[in-house]
Amino acid sequence: MAAARAVHSGLMYRAAESVSDATKAMKQGSRASPENTARQALAQKDFAFVPVMVIHGSKDDTVNPVNADQVVEQFMAMSRLADGGNKALTEFTRSESGGDRYPYEMRDYRRGDMLLLRKVLVEGLDHAWSGARPGESSGLGSNPRLAESKKLPATFGKRAEDEGKSPGPPSQERSGYGLSAR
Question: Does the reported pTM lie above 0.70?
Answer without folding.
Answer: yes
